[in-house]
Write a structure and sequence with these properties.
Elements: E1 9-10, E2 19-26, E3 29-36, E4 39-48, E5 54-62, E6 68-76
Antiparallel strand pairs: 1-2, 2-3, 3-4, 4-5, 5-6
């Protein structure tokens, strides 16, 4: 549980992270960061289209081996 205020909130049930922070940018956009031990592992955004039918999630970060990664996923409402 947390709020969209950009502050860290604890995460349970995920061995790869222990905190998340989410910020509401506008009515269609959230930004977030995923942390472990105070270190930012991933940052990203969730953007909902104006018609509410498409959600795009973009993530950037570093994996456990130190390799830089990026990912974009697009979800369509049916």
């Amino acid at each position: 549980m947390g709020k969209f205020d950009g502050k860290d909130y604890p995460v349970t049930g995920d061995s790869t992270s222990d905190a998340r922070a989410v910020t509401k940018v506008d009515d269609h956009t959230l930004t977030f960061s995923v942390k472990k031990g105070g270190k930012v592992l991933f940052t990203g955004s969730i953007v909902l289209s104006a018609d509410g039918k498409t959600r795009t999630v973009t993530i950037e970060g570093t994996d456990s081996a130190g390799k830089k990664i990026t990912s974009t996923a697009v979800y369509d409402k049916q």
